[in-house]
Amino acid sequence: MTTKEHLLSCLAEECCEVGQRVSKALRFGLEEIQPGQNQTNAQRIVYEFTDLLAVFDMLGREKIIDASIDPIALAKKMSKVQKYIEFAKSKGTLTD
Ligand SMILES: [Mg+2]
What we know:
Helix 1 (about 5-30) runs antiparallel to helix 2 (about 40-60). The protein has helices at about 5-30, 40-60, 70-90. It has three helices and no strands. It starts with a helix and ends in a 5-residue tail after the last helix. It is an all-alpha fold. Bound molecules: magnesium ion. Magnesium ion (MG) binds next to helix 1 and helix 2.
């Protein structure tokens, strides 16, 4: 395995860990603390997302990927998500 493959594997793992934490928060709430843990699901999402960002940054530093974030692409994604929030509201599947 190369460093590139190792870091890409780490990135995939961290993505899954973020997904797992988000799933737990959806099932049990952001403020729930899993037995044996001392952080809420919200805190653990931040922790795992930080892990994800760290590996993403390492991929950039190793010049494996261009890890620079395009602010225009960021704004476009936010706009797209907002558009689908409004669509979901119009369909009655999003109620708050
Ligand atoms: Mg992690």
